[in-house]
Amino acid sequence: MTETLQGAARTNALAPLLSRGWTETDDGTAIEKRYEFRNFNEAFGFMTRVALWAEKRDHHPDWRNVYRTVEVTLSTHDAGGLTQKDITLAEKMDEAAAHV
Question: SS3 of 73, please?
Answer without folding.
Answer: strand
